[in-house]
Amino acid sequence: TFSLRSTEYGFIIIVYLFCIIVLHITGKCCNAQLETTTFGQGNGGDLLIEAADRVSLDMGADIFAEVKGTGNGGNIRINTASFFATNEARLSNSIYSKGNAGDIVINAGDRISLGQNVRVNNGILDTGDGIGGNISFNTGSLFMTDNAAVNTFTFSKGNAGDIIINARDLVSLDTNAQVNSFAVDK
Predict the structure, then answer these.
(1) In CA terms, which of 32, 45, 50, 97 is 20 to 30 Å from 15?
(2) What is the average pLDDT across 164-183?
(3) Span 95-118, average pLDDT
(4) Which neighbouring-strand residues pair with 170?
(5) Residue pLDDT, tens place only, 140-169
(6) How far apart are CA 151 and CA 182, in angstroms?
(7) What is the model's pLDDT at position 31?
(8) Is the dihedral of CA 100, 139, 146, 52 positive or negative?
(9) Where are the beta strands (DSSP E) in the chain?
(10) Sign of CA dihedral 101, 93, 149, 153
């Protein structure tokens, strides 16, 4: 089931997968994207993905929520057993003007695996003004390798969001993997 609902300001995109237990988004030939973006005044929409087995991003695939006008960013929430991202996939929540970024939450009961230049970014860009959103991982184990990075930031006024990792079994960062939170006031 794929649902697109209009709200007062933005859209809420909801993807529920019951019969098909894998959501695989690949950018191999088409720069695959799942996004919610607001260009004018108003809040961004939320993006919710629920998949019983796993969610997989590969080959530059993007999931993002952005506000390029004035307003607060929507939230990105993924609920699944396992989340895999590799080959320059990106999960991003960004504010380009005045407003606060939404949160990125991944609930994966078994594992979260980020590799090969994957970026999970949440923040306020230099043209923005607001508070960065949080990134939360709730999982059995978190594996990050091969230059994967998780970043909260603000390049403007305001604070960067928090990075919260709740892992029942293991957190492993290897081969230049990074977890960063920073603020740069211009």
Answers:
(1) 97
(2) 96
(3) 94
(4) 141
(5) 999 999 999 999 999 887 889 999 999 999
(6) 8
(7) 62
(8) negative
(9) 2-6, 11-17, 22-26, 33-38, 47-58, 62-67, 76-85, 90-95, 104-114, 119-124, 135-144, 149-154, 163-173, 178-183
(10) negative
